[in-house]
Amino acid sequence: MTRIARYLKPYLLLISGAILLLFIQANADLALPDYMSRIVNNGIQQGGIENAIPMAMRKSTLDKIRLFLTKDEQSLVDSAYSLIDKNSPDYQTYLSQYPILTKEPIYIRKPLDSSQIKALNPILARGLLTVSFLDRVLADPAQAQAMGKSLGFDFSKLPPNFYQMFANLPADQRAPLINAIQSRFKSMSESMIVQMSIAAVKAEYTALGVNLTTLQNNYILKTGGLMLGITLISVTATILVGFLAARVAAGFTRDLREAFFERVSGFSNAEMEKFSTASLITRSTNDLTQIQMVTMLMMRMVFYAPIIGVGGLIRAINIAASMWWIVAMMVIVLIGIVISVFSITLPRFKLIQSLIDRLNRVVRENLEGMMVVRAFNRQDFEEERFEKANLDLTRTSLFVSRVMVIMMPLMMFLMSGISILVIWVGSHQVAQTSIQVGNMMAFMQYTMQIFFAFMFMSMMFIILPRASISADRIADVLETKPTINDPIKPKHFPEPFKGLVEFKQVCFHYPDAEENVLDDINLVVRPGETTAFIGTTGSGKSTIVNLIPRFYDVTCGAITIDGIDIRDVTQRELRSKIGYVPQKSNLFSGTIESNLLYGDENATEEELQLAAEIAQAAEFINTNPKGFQAEIAQGGINVSGGQRQRLAIARALVKKAPIYIFDDSFSALDYKTDITLRRALKKYVGKSTIFIVTQRVATIKDADQIIVLDEGRVVGKGKHRELMETCEVYRNIALSQLTQEELA
After folding, report:
1. How far is the C-alpha of 652 from the C-alpha of 582, rounded, in Å?
2. Which residues pair with 109 in a beta bridge?
3. Considering 311, 342, 553, 686, which has the largest number of Cβ atoms within 10 A of its Cβ?
4. 492 and 576 in contact (C-beta within 8 Å)?
5. Model confidence over 78-101: pLDDT tens digits?
6. Tens-place pLDDT, residues 657-716
7. pLDDT at 144
8. Is 589 left (phi over 0), alpha (psi -120 to 50) or beta?
């Protein structure tokens, strides 16, 4: 993926926005279990009371608590509360909330920050528990005696006016009782002490006249409302991330597709030989689809999953550190599964792409060569070839699918097992007052979040290799540099353009070939002349004309037009001077008109009609009810070979080029049409430089110059009559086609 990452640069802002939204979404999702824990712990179990620092206390209660505090603790508590009595300016404000004010003063808690709450919580929790405990034993002598036996202090001997007497005792005489009571708290965690003190806070609120049901409902509704708000934020972030991910993935793939098409369009024949047509089609469709899908998933999961995984791990350990080993065990098992699946599927994903190429190649060959297959009765053979390619792809795909099918139930089984383990271990710890029920539930939710984060990452580790292979296949094409390039400082043909073409000691060999296809070609072709190339099969006839529009570049020597080396001008300027009719007449899906306008999109109807008449195509065009609007199928398969050739010639004539190349473009024409077309052609393009490649001697008898090629060398040059006398190769070709009378 890194090889094509540069195409993501235009989308960095959108990606940054998506990552920011993912942080918001992840933090919102991570906050929900904590709020759920608060509802269970504080809202349900503690009646809506969050801590051991009451919002208000009777003066008598706080005075009792102060008896069991150190001076520093007393100072800290005093700074947290304000005394309200009948003389206070806020008396009427608090009277409706705390009816006890009519009987005695109360202390109202001041606004506190988190650090003050953290410091006061255990102090007041121990104080409230101590006072609550003493109030119970003073009210029940039997309970006092039982408590005394377990603590080593006889509480039954405490007098009813204990607090008044205790306040008057010196500190050293108060110490034994305080130590006896405080010893009960040594084996408990601060969180459990705070939780146990909630009953005392509730009792104090009841004494103050507070409606506990309303307090509990308000807390649950407030916390539930916050959860709904956080969920809404998470949902909004999820939708926005999905939108941005889709935009980036679609735009990224569109840019890759454009770059891919542009690069392939600039390939010379040498580069096209490196990649099969079937492979290029697969790369521009299947591979790019894989990249688009993974790009979207990466933005939605690859960034989100680590945040959830790490954040959930930190929060889970903070909320129930004693169960950290469950998370560690789960992560180790998940990593083992991911590594196993990754090592099994990666080689198969590499194989799948090549098998798709192979299947496309077989299908393409069968569709294009269907008539040949039928003519030779090779349907059974081709069906077997397709069946083998199809079965190989199917088997490999099924293997990968089976791995994925096995993986999902395995993951779900692991998730269920982890849930049961958390509940089993957590319930024991709840029974031992090590953690609260809400904390256990939150820990389980964080564990599931961690699990799903790792599962998402494991899915990406499985999908990413296939996308990486697809990305490499796309990058291979994008990084293939065309061997034929425009010069940095291009020259221009002189005006007026004449079309004088000269080959100067030209030689050529195909890429990676050891021997030359053409050797020492020296040739001058003047404007207004027709130069024909003829020779044995494989002698280099088509190759030599393909050098003129730079479909290949010469290996040595030079080709000049009007004295300018064709490598010194841009390909666009060079090809704008050439009307080219290829050996294989390619037509494009559309109409006859759209195909002819390929030569010149601004051509008029009269110019199209004239070109069709010269190319001897007007007759079959005009007899069609739709005329120039007649449909042409892809590749021109709905017209005959001769009609296809004539339309290709007409397309080149529409261009009105000063140089024309006809690469065996008359082979599908009958002799009468061939003669008529060449006569019309001579009249219409008589001032142009014309190159004709052919196997027919009759087609080139009247050419101004005939070049005879044999094994890449010029073995004859001249007019028809001269060559019949001086060139044995030409004479043998001519005599094999025509009689002596026809050759005269």
Report:
1. 10
2. 81
3. 311
4. no
5. 999 999 988 888 888 888 888 888
6. 899 998 888 777 777 887 888 888 888 887 889 999 988 888 888 888 999 998 888 899
7. 62
8. beta
pLDDT at 564: 92
Q: What gap in Å lies between CA 64 and CA 131, rounded to an integer?
A: 7
Cis peptide before 496 (omega within 30 of 0): yes
Phi-psi region of 580 (alpha: psi -120 to 50; beta: other; left: phi over 0): beta
CA atoms of 403 and 400, how far apart (whole Å):
5
pLDDT at 153: 58
CA-CA-CA-CA dihedral for 262, 268, 274, 275, to nearest 10: 40
Q: Which helix (H) or strand (E) holds 508?
A: strand 501-508
**Strands laid side by side in the 705-710 sheet:** 578-581, 659-663, 689-693, 530-535, 705-710, 713-718
Task: Taking the CA atoms of 514, 518, 521 and 525 in sequence, report the sign of the dihedral they define.
Answer: negative
pLDDT classification of 643: cutoffs 50, 70, 90? confident
Task: Take residue 121 and report the two structure tokens written for it.
Answer: 């919580």
pLDDT of residue 236: 94
Bridge partners of 709, per DSSP, are 535, 714
Burial class (CB in 10 A: 0-12, 13-18, 19+), 48: buried
- 710: tokens are 């044999």
Tell me how far apart the alpha carbons of residues 8 and 5 are, in angstroms, rounded to a whole number.
Answer: 6
Report the run of H or E that residue 532 belongs to, with start and end. Answer: strand 530-535
pLDDT tens-digit readout, 578-605 = 999 888 888 888 898 998 898 888 888 8
- Using CA of residue 656, residue 659, residue 663, residue 665, what is the dihedral sign? positive
Q: What is the 3-state secondary structure (H, E, C) of 64-77?
A: HHHCCCCHHHHHHH
**Listed residue (455, 429, 433) closest to 443, CA to CA:** 429
CA atoms of 226 and 230, how far apart (whole Å): 6
CA distance 683 to 681: 5
pLDDT, one tens digit per residue, over 492-518 is 999 888 989 999 999 998 877 778 888
Phi-psi region of 39 (alpha: psi -120 to 50; beta: other; left: phi over 0): alpha
CA distance 347 to 345: 6
Burial of 734: CB neighbours in 10 Å, binned 0-12, 13-18, 19+ = buried
Burial class (CB in 10 A: 0-12, 13-18, 19+), 191: middle
Quick check: helix, strand or coil at residue 290? helix
Helix (H) or strand (E) run with residue 631 in it: strand 631-632
What is the mean pLDDT of the segment spanning 199-215? 88
Cross-strand bridge partners of residue 662 = 581, 692
How far is residue 159 from each of residues 53, 62, 65, 180, 250, measured CA to CA in Å? 29, 20, 18, 17, 83
User: What pLDDT shows up at residue 377?
Assistant: 77
- Look up tokens 């608060």; give the residue: 38
**Is residue 152 pLDDT above 60, yes or no?**
no
Closest CA to 564 of 520, 522, 521, 501: 501
Closest by CA to 663, choosing from 586, 601, 743, 573, is: 586
Residue 603 corresponds to which tokens in the numbers above? 């051509």
Q: At 520, which helix (H) or strand (E)?
A: strand 518-525
Closest CA to 709 of 722, 688, 723: 723
Residue type for position 568:
D
Task: Please give the order of strands across the beta sheet that includes 518-525.
Answer: 518-525, 501-508, 556-561, 564-565
DSSP run (H or E) holding 501: strand 501-508
The phi and psi torsions of 270 (rounded to 5 degrees) equal: -65, -45
Whether residue 556 contacts residue 507, with contact meaning beta carbons closer than 8 Å, is answered with yes
Q: Which residue has the tokens 């009247």?
A: 702
pTM for this one?
0.72
Written as six digits, the tokens of 440 are: 């256990």
d(CA 350, CA 465) in angstroms, rounded, equals 8
- 702 DSSP 8-state letter: T
Q: Report whether pLDDT(141) > 90.
A: no
pLDDT of residue 105: 92
